Amino acid sequence: MKYGIVLEGGAMRGLFTAGATDVLMEEGITFDGGVGVSAGAAFGCNIKSEQPGRAVRYNLRFCNDKRYCSKRSLIKTGDLFNADFCYHTVPEKLDLFDFRAYEESPMEFYIVCTDVVSGKPVYHRSTRMDASGLEWLRASASLPLVSRIVEADGRKLLDGGITDSIPLRFMESVGYEKNIVILTQPRDYRKEKTGSLPLVKISMRKYPELIKAVAHRHEMYNAELDYVRKAESEGRAYVIAPEGKLPVKRVEHDQDKLLEAYRMGRKAVKNHLSEIKTFLGIE
């Protein structure tokens, strides 16, 4: 039996995920494979490189650094999260990502993006976090309106959460029979139709299929929540979710709030560690 982990996005809500996955790594819990969407991919890749603590460390360090995330970056580069600083300067110079450990790990890791031409999800198996791999990672977390379209391997890509926010069904389709699913919204959350659709229609007018995907995202998301609940009731999934609304905004510069979200993720796993181990067949 293959065990997987599914990581939802949510920008800085991903610090909850980082807290949860750090505890799993500290407990020596491993997975045959994983899939990450947006922040779930950007932070979740540290599971494959076996670097607990890295995601929270660099986010606390740079959350107020204008090179990392700022309106200035958006105006100058077209990206709210500066592409060069976030995906090259930080992992290559300031808080080193273990590229070799990532490549040598037997864990499969998939990154979800959205193809802006087809308006469909793309699942990229990331075996190396080289220049191409980093572009896929960046694409997965590139939100419309605050990011440029990313080109990788001949595709035009944006945020994976537009078309597959909680890719449990995908993981099951590639052979993962039991999956830990980490959500960044409380269990009773339901997504509403986005209010930014008019702006998306203007900025993405060349990509009508992407506009359709954005318009129906709330329906897709809520249907995926229903699927996750069904899988959980049937014993195919174990869900880790915040007990209440996380204290962070999608873009958050308050270190205390980021740290609180991270600690909530740690607590969510620690409080249910025995159940998680039982689900994964760990004695």
Describe this structure in words.
There is one protein chain. With 283 residues, the protein is of the alpha/beta class. The protein is built from 13 helices and 8 strands. Strands 1, 2, 3, 4, 5, 6, 7 and 8 form an 8-stranded mixed β-sheet that branches. The longest helix is centred in the C-terminal third of the chain and has 17 residues, at 217-233. It starts with a strand and ends with a helix. The mean pLDDT is 97.
Q: Quick summary of this structure?
A:
The protein has 13 helices and eight strands. It is α/β, with parallel strands linked by helices and 283 residues long. The protein has helices spanning 14-26, 39-48, 54-62, 71-77, 83-94, 99-104, 131-140, 168-173, 197-203, 208-215, 217-233, 255-270, 273-279; strands at 3-7, 33-37, 108-115, 120-125, 150-152, 155-159, 178-182, 237-240.
- The total strand number stands at 8
Structural class: alpha/beta
Q: Unreliable runs, pLDDT <50, ≥5 residues?
A: none
C-alpha-based Rg, rounded = 17 Å
Listing every helix as H and every strand as E from the N terminus to the C terminus, the arrangement reads: EHEHHHHHEEHEEHEHHHEHH
In round numbers, the mean pLDDT is 97
> Tell me about the biggest sheet?
8 strands, mixed
**What fraction of residues sit in β-strands?**
5-15%
The N- and C-terminal alpha carbons lie at a distance of 16 Å
Quaternary structure of the protein = single chain
Helix content estimate: 40-55%
Q: Describe the global form.
A: globular
Total DSSP helices: 13
